[in-house]
Amino acid sequence: MWKMEDYKYLFKVVLIGNAGVGKTCLVRRFTQGLFPPGQGATIGVDFMIKTVEIDGERVKLQIWDTAGQERFRSITQSYYRSANALIVVYDISCQPTFDCLPQWLNEIEMYANTKVLKYLVGNKSDRVNLREIPRYIGEDFSQRHDMKFLETSAKEADNVEKLFMEIAKQLTLQARQNDLRPYTSESTDRLDGGSSPISSYGCCKL
Ligand SMILES: Nc1nc2c(ncn2[C@@H]2O[C@H](COP(=O)(O)OP(=O)(O)OP(=O)(O)O)[C@@H](O)[C@H]2O)c(=O)[nH]1
């Protein structure tokens, strides 16, 4: 077991998207390596931690799993602001979950930090015969909205590790650049903006 202080950076990653798209399963797959049977709907928010290694440095990911149901929206919104990365999830076998993406982007616009790293994820890629959203449609949407894109399957562990590791890597790169940069008005803005700072262990300690 690593000790709590044994990490260089701490990043908050928040998953959002309609109920039932597989947010909880993605988090469980990555943090615990399992696909839980009979997963109930998330109530409010939940978080799990996983420490990974990026270029020889330990990076701690605090992964927040939010409830997709409308009635929890006011609770989940408060978590956007401190996110370093946001993963917007839809289900490739369920068109309405894709059609709701503009609403999720609206939420991000209203509540998240402008510099947040955004990923669009089409989950349940194993449901080949039930696919309703072609891959290129998801990819095109992501490009138009300044998001990175991946299709995943929490069930078959496809691209899940890749998703979180890419995020950890990107955030680490950004953090290293910030560490090198002298203190500027821009970095002050970032802190005032309420986002948890992408910076070294000293200021991000829990
Ligand atoms: N085939 C398939 N089913 C999946 C996958 N991921 C999740 N599911 C199923 O989809 C259902 C919903 O999964 P959850 O992870 O609870 O969805 P959620 O987005 O967290 O839902 P809320 O907590 O209500 O927001 C469950 O029945 C899962 O077994 C996947 O990759 N493939």
Automatic annotation (TrEMBL):
Annotated SMART domains: RAB, RAN, RAS, RHO
Q: Which PROSITE patterns match?
A: RAB, RAS
GO MF annotations in UniProt: G protein activity; GTP binding; metal ion binding
**Pfam family of the protein (one):** Ras
Give the enzyme's main class according to its UniProt record, as a single word: hydrolase
Region of interest: Disordered: 182-206
Predominantly, its location class is: membrane
Keywords (alphabetical) are:
Cytoplasm, Cytoplasmic vesicle, Golgi apparatus, GTP-binding, Hydrolase, Lipoprotein, Lysosome, Magnesium, Membrane, Metal-binding, Methylation, Nucleotide-binding, Prenylation
**EC number assigned by the record:** 3.6.5.2
Q: How does it sit in the membrane?
A: Lipid-anchor
Keyword Transcription tagged: no
What cofactor is needed?
Mg(2+)
Catalytic reaction list: GTP + H2O = GDP + phosphate + H(+)
Which InterPro entries does this one have?
P-loop_NTPase (IPR027417), Rab (IPR050227), Small_GTP-bd (IPR005225), Small_GTPase (IPR001806)
State where the protein is found: Cytoplasmic vesicle, Autophagosome membrane; Golgi apparatus, cis-Golgi network; Golgi apparatus, trans-Golgi network membrane; Lysosome
User: What's an example GO cellular component term for this entry?
Assistant: autophagosome membrane
Q: Which NCBIfam families match?
A: small_GTP
Similarity comment: Belongs to the small GTPase superfamily. Rab family.
Give a short account of what the protein does. The small GTPases Rab are key regulators of intracellular membrane trafficking, from the formation of transport vesicles to their fusion with membranes. Rabs cycle between an inactive GDP-bound form and an active GTP-bound form that is able to recruit to membranes different sets of downstream effectors directly responsible for vesicle formation, movement, tethering and fusion. RAB30 is required for maintaining the structural integrity of the Golgi apparatus, possibly by mediating interactions with cytoplasmic scaffolding proteins.
UniProt-recorded name of the protein: Ras-related protein Rab-30
